[in-house]
Specification:
It is built from four helices and four strands. By secondary structure, the protein is an alpha+beta fold. Helix 2 packs across helix 4. The radius of gyration is 14 Å and the shape is globular.
């Protein structure tokens, strides 16, 4: 798949930049490369154990061994985030699949062989989630 690379990348917000702190340099490089193809927001990167425990309790996550705890995962939204008419995040939007295609394409370009997308998971589909496996 050949995508059209922009001359200049989309700008990452200061909030998104802060959320990349502590994330593995390969994932940071991936985010930088994705920005040449589509606008995105970084929702979460490195996560502490207390936050992870809270997510498991809330049912948002199923494990205390999340790759976020090691900086080996990042959650990304297409920008603007796709929403339904009622304002909820639209998990059925084709923009998630577009983001995944771009992420895998960019991972191949910069030599990341072990990218995993939470959108392909069976037990807890997590479309914003990308991790190094």
């Amino acid at each position: 798949m050949e995508l059209k690379r922009r001359e200049k990348p989309y700008a990452l917000s200061s909030r998104s930049k802060l959320r990349l702190r502590g994330v593995n340099p390969l994932l940071q490089e991936l985010v930088e490369e994705i920005l040449f193809y589509m606008d995105i927001s970084v929702i979460e990167g490195l996560r502490d154990l207390e936050t992870q425990k809270r997510y498991v309790h809330q049912g948002v996550s199923k494990t205390l061994a999340s790759k976020h705890l090691e900086g080996l995962a990042v959650d990304l939204y297409p920008y603007p985030c796709p929403r339904t008419k009622t304002g909820e995040i639209d998990s059925k939007s084709p923009r998630w699949d577009q983001l995944a295609r771009v992420a895998y394409y960019c991972a191949g370009k910069i030599g990341i062989p072990n990218l995993e997308w939470g959108g392909t998971w069976k037990s807890l589909v997590d479309k914003p989630h990308f991790q190094l496996s």
